[in-house]
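Researcher: Let's run the pair from yesterday's discussion. Sequence first, then tokens, for each.
Model: Starting with the first of the pair.
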Amino acid sequence: MISMRQHVISLAAVLLALGVGIVLGSTSLSERVLSHVGEERDSLSNQVDELGAERTALRGELDGVNRFSAATAPLTVRGSLADRGVVLYSTWDVSEQDRAGMRRLLEESGAQVTGEVQLDRAVAEPDRADQVRKLVTRLLPAGVQLPTATDVGTLTGGLLGPLTMADQGAGAPQIAPEERAAALTGLSEGGFATVVGEVRPAPLALVMTGGDQAGAEAGGAADRAAFLARFASQLDRSGSGAVLAGARGSADGDGPVGVARADRAVSSVLSTVDNADTPQGRVAAVLALREQLDGRAGHYGTASSAQGAVPGVRD
């Protein structure tokens, strides 16, 4: 007969064996888990290294493409705008480097840049809209009629269009030089634009925008985008054609190029480019101006809403 003492000892032995088994089993399991985690870590590390090398290689290829495009751009556009006048507009978020690069390429195409107007961010701010409307009405030269639309972009284009663009039919200035100078000075003194030197009327207008990526964080990006789309569209109606050329990201839903492309009334007449901060985009902008002279409009760049990279090469 098994005594109580033997029973307790047997039970303790069983529990001890079970505990030892659990410890040994968990240790083995932990080792397998740790081994698997280590293998996964090594695999992910290798993938990261491979992706990093691939990214570096792609950046190198992109840099090479950009250098090639920059070198061949003058040959690509040469003569396309021979003896044609272009007024160059730019917004508050366009760098001096991009602006100068675009001007050089326009001149390489044979175009005459007849003036530069740099728009200040204040002109597109919603809280300054009433002030802009009043100023536009006050500066409007005699004989010029503003569009019936009341949005600030269209009204500002309705003022600057006749001031800076030649008549579509005869190609003659629409405003006397003295009235043009007075109106442009008024916009500058109001803090809404900066005029670089003298501005002479031209049949074409190129509106450059950087996409306002930093300003998007502060709010109001959609309002400024709508302003630019309607402003450029009204310039187009004032002369022989216009192109809205934005930096990468400008074709997003709340970007100026994106807004222009989404509005059929605008996109049917105004040409757009969504990568004007690259050599390829600048070439597209110049060729799009040439296309505008031929009475056609198109949308170019790398965004999904583009018809192709450059005019003549449509998807």
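Model: Moving on to the second of the pair.
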Amino acid sequence: MAAAITAAAIASGCASGGEPDAVEPAHGQQPLQAPPARALDSYARKLGAAQAVRAAAAKRWGLAKTPLAAPPAPAAKPHITTRKGFEVKGQAHLPPVFTTIPTKEKVVFLTIDDGAEKDPALLKMMSDLKLPYTAFLSDYLVKEDYAYFKKMQSRGVTLNNHTLNHRYLPGLSYEGQRREICGMQDTIQKRYGKRPELFRPPYGNYNQDTLRAARSCGVKAVPLWASEAFADHMEWREWDRDLHPGDIILTHFRGREDWKGTMPDMVRRVMKTVTDKGYAVARLEDYL
């Protein structure tokens, strides 16, 4: 990579002579500010070093391949709209509901729901691999160990809303739904210092009252999912049973009591699928 970047710099004139800071413009043009070739070399070396660290961590954690590095966060955020067929009446004035982020980058987003399993190995594994993920929490499970999710937050994970008690929301009144959603907003703000902007309804079920209630307590968007990861397999929403740029992947905080494996087993499974298909895992919040 370093050689390729340096070659590009030489071709552009950046590395000729004494490595000038700017290319001499034609008459009447503004100078082109081009970084020195040595700066590009340094950047390439840092990228290579970071990937070498990730490769070592991947081997240590038993991944089949080293995860691919995600591209930089987009300077301009994609315009998010509700997926066709997922609308409710008055959708234009309500938080968008979507399963995929509109992007051409080969990135996907890993999201983990509820909070039942509190495996310390997951925290270390994801930190070692530098894999971003987003949590959607339900208080009836999280309250067993608020400190676990505080550690998760300290590692850069955004903690979002999955209701207080994981009820089937369309079966509740508007006020009942509002208690479930806004109550969890209040709990996360109290325990973790920040009111979430993302909300995922339990089971992916919602109606107009759900989105109205979510909007009323500060929710900006409702990410669902395009595929679901387990410790031993993947399940797909789309007909082609494949990944697509910007897909959101769902999984859960689970262990051997519910799965044929552990949280690290799930990470190994999902990363094999993602990496084999040429995708990187990016941070969801960077695209919203």
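Researcher: Give me one sentence on the second I can quote.
Model: The first strand starts at residue 22 and ends at 23.
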